[in-house]
Each structure stands twice: as structure tokens, then as C-alpha cells.
Amino acid sequence: MHGIDYGIVALYLISIVLIGLYLQRKASIGIDSYFLGNRDMPWWALASSGMASNLDISGTMIIAALIYALGVKGFYIEIRGGVTLIMAFLMIYMGKWNRRSGVMTLAEWMELRFGKGTQGQVARFIAAIASIIMTIAMVTYFALGGGKFLDSFLGLHNYLGLPSEFWAAGILIAVAMIYTVASGLYGVVWTDVFQGFLIFAAILYMASKAFAITLPEEFSISLPLFDGGFKHYTTTLKEWTSVLPATKLNVDSLSQYSIYNLFGIAVMFYILKVVLEGSGGTGNYMLQRYFAARNDREAGLLSAFWVFLLSFRWIFIGAIAVIGVSLGSKISDPELVLPAVVETLPIGIKGFLVAGLMAAGMSTFDSTVNAGAAYWVKDIYQLYINPKASHKQLMRHSYLASIFIVIFGLGLMLVFKNINSVWGWITMSIGSGMLIPMLLRWYWSRMNGWGFSIGILSGMIAAVLFKAFAPEGTTEYAMFTVASVSSLLGTVIGTLITAPIDEKTLTKFYNKTRPFGSWTRFKNKLTKDDIIAIDKENKRDIFSTFIAVPWQIVFFLFMMSIMFKNWTSVTILGIILLTLTTILYFSWYKHLSTEVIVKE
Q1: Are 67 and 321 in contact (CB under 8 A)?
Q2: CATH code of the domain covering residue 426
Q3: 128-150 burial by CB neighbour count: b if 16+ within 10 A, else e?
Q4: Are 58 and 145 in contact (CB under 8 A)?
Q5: Under a CB-based contact definition with an 8 Å cutoff, are residues 435 and 80 in contact?
Q6: Residue 596 falls within a domain, yes or no?
Q7: How sure is the predictor about 487, in pLDDT bands with cuts at 50, 70 and 90?
């Protein structure tokens, strides 16, 4: 980069650090303020922060690689996690259910659901440990992508036997750590809002640049091989831009992407994974936004605005893919399409876009670390190690937990080399090991803390062992099957061989959150008016979810198709989008202000 570009990046870094340090005093009032912003932050800011946190460097590099290599079909692969389809469920009902619980972390939620006895404490501890492990894995994922991207521009060298990508990631993380540790969720959200303006400016610039490009009817793309090399293949514009999912792909068996050749089966498993995940709720930094929401209405509004903002990511992804294809043989590694495109930009614009992408990366990192640290402080240190901890001690551990999570995550960067392999393992293996227990906890009233704990342990251990011993080229849906089936068996068996939870705990949980499922006997204890209101709400939510899922998919495909100038697809998707939006307005939006208040 030119000196002007470096100056722009430096100005951006100094700005976000100053914002974080400015908010330190407000965040240090207490851990509720540090981790949840005192539950008094505006919904639009929480949504903007959530969007910025989802638009990370690593994810953008993976998705851009898949769209560049496979066209629109790469979108369907990213249903596994990159489409963030869980937002449809959070928007309709899962967000408000979590908000109603009134807790700070997912682990603390376990105590509300399973009681304060031994099984509730064990479930809370297991949830905290699992969440910290996932946080470390996400930091590793962030470090790989951030390091790979930034190293392309900084020109660092190997030092102390460590690759230059490691040092590039270290620089990015060190800066983000300053304001994340100092200002907690206040710093995370407001720096994310600030960074969101940079991100959107970058999106608009790249969209205008890509829109001026007309791709040929036939062109070549590069695919990664299992032996570490890359090979160019020819495809057509019609095939590349088609929004219709295929049942099979014809990718060369030597390519790493050949694991997606049974495309219909793969997508089916991705959709199944999303339905299970969405119906069970999310965790970490996404869930933290809902715990911090003021009320049910704002939980819904922040979700809808979050999805709207996320749709622009697909304009950006489409733009990067189009420009990448236009570069022809200059692209070898698909995961380096993003930095290769940025390198073509003029002086000043390049620095601005690098700053915008660094903003996207830091937004993911700061949210992940802040949420992960909460599990240590709230669910392990304060609960088991030092129940009488002072405010000063809790804040000190908030800082230390953030630092140690980052150190472990950065260290694992030396183990994993490929961003897509890490993301596939997180979403389809280790994450899938948590899906079934996370799902059943809401809908199966008989499920207890022992079932949850055994299910989580079974799934995650199976995921780790499978990763260690599975042969190269193993499909992601094989990972999913092993992890999810192991956790299902562990959950069901663990629940049935142990005693059920006491009625008082279950009644309190139902009255606070009011989920649907096998809770009929608890609902029947309420007044007739409460029962009628809850039934109406549940029926609306179930119907609206069936609309919201395709609505989000169509919305994102519509935005990406604009960049591909596939006007037939744009027209058809636009009509479908308008129809689904109208239905959601009447089935969901008009009822956002309605909340059933049940006395405990």
C-alpha cells in the first residue's frame, strides 16, 4: 500500500481505540453494564453492531471464494452458517424468548431452566465451558482470515519461526483488544456502529465498480486441490449466475470442493442444521444482543433491521466475485479473491477499503471475545471460585478472561491452515454437537440438566474425535451426522435415566418465557385469557417462521443477483420477496407490540 493508504488505516485504528477508551468509565460500572450495556441500548444500535459482527473478514473471504468458484451455488453451501439464516427464527420468536429470560449468559439461562440444584449447576458449567471452547474456535477462525487478508498488504516476514500471517493477525487482534477489554459491550456496540459506516461505504464503492463490468459468456475460475495446489476450470455465465440449486455438481475429484458434488444431499443437511439451530436459539455474541434488548418489540425490530443490513453483504460478495472473475488467471487461491480484488484499487481507496474490512473483522472479534469472557466471569469465577467477589475483582477477571481467550485462539491458528476447513468444523461438527441439546431444552419439558450436559459432552467429544481421525475429504454432512446423532443419544438417554426437574422450577421457566412444545400442563395452570393470548401468539409465530425463512433466502439472493445483472432472476425474486414481505407485515410485524404478561 501507499503511504496515504497506511495513513487512512492508522487514522481509523486510532479513532476506534479512542471511542473504546472514552466509553471505559460507563462500561466499568458493573458486569451487567460491561457485558449487556445495562440493557438500555437502542435496538438499531444493537442491530447495526450485530450486522457488523456477522460481516467478518474470514467469513467474507470464504463466501467470496465459494461464489467466485461456484457462482450462486456457493450461496447454498453457505446456508450452513454464512447466510446467517438463524436470524429468521430470532426475528419471529427465538429472540423474544431469550429476552424474556432476563439472564446475562446462555449458561445462566440453564439455571433458570434446570433449577439451582446439582443438575442445574452442572448444566450451567458445561454450557459455559462449551461456549468458551466455541469462542476460542471463533477467535482462531477470525485470526486465520484476518491474518491472511492483512498479510497481503503489510508485507510482514516470518519471525521466530512463526508465519507472517500470524503476526498480521496479532496486530489486528492487539488493536481490537484495547477497546474490547476497556469498554465491554458499550465499546463493542458503538465502535461497531462507527465501523458500520466504513463497511457500507466500502460496499457501495465495490458495488459501483463491479456493476460497470460485463462478464463474458464463458470464463475460467480456480479451484483448490487436495494436494495444496490450484487448477483453473472453465464455466459459463449462465451456469454461474443460475439461482436454481442443482442436485449434483461436477467438480473434479481432485478439488477440495468435490466434497460438495452430492449437492442436493449437502444442502438438505445444511437446511436441517439451520432449522435445528434456529429452533434451538443461538449463543455467544448474537444471543448477547437479545439479552441486552429492552423488550419483546425491540427484540423483533433489531432482528428485522439486522437482516436488512446483512442483505447488503451479498451485494458486496457479488461485487467481489464479479471483479475476481474479471481478473482471470491472476487468481489462484479462491480464498485470496478478496485481497486480490482490493490490490487492484487506486491509492486512497485501497486504504479506505482495507480499513473497512479491518472494521468488519474487528467487529466480529470484539463481539465474540466480550461474550466469551462473560461465561468465565458470570458462570465459573463468580459462581464456583469466588461467590463473594468484589466489583473490582469481577472487572479484573473480565479483562483477564478476554486476554486469555485471545491467546488460546491465536495459538490454534498455528494448527489450522485453511479458513474453510475451520469454518466447516465449527458449523457442521463441533457446533452440530450442541444443536440437539440446545433444541430440546425449549420444547421438551421432561428434559433435565443431566440430559443437557451428557448430550453436549457426547456431541462435542464426538466432533473432536471425528476431526482427529476422519480421512481427508470427509464430507461436512458426515461430520454433522456423527456429532448430532451422538448428542441426541446422550441427551435422551441422560434425561430418561435421571430424575425429572421439580414442578416449581418448570412453572417459573414457562411463565417467564412461554415457549411452545410439551408445556400444556403448565399453560393450563394460567387464566383462560392468558391461555387464549399465548395460543394466538404461538400460532402466529409458527406460521410466520415458515414465511420468514424463505423470505430471508430470497432477500439475499435478490441482492446478489443485482450484482450479477441476472435481470430475469432479479424480477422473479423481487416479486416473491414483495409477496413474502406483505404476508410477514400482517402475520408478524403488526403484532410486535403485543406481549402476554404472566404473573409468576
Answers
A1: yes
A2: 1.20.1730.10
A3: bbbbbbbbbbbbbbbbbbbbbbb
A4: yes
A5: no
A6: no
A7: very high
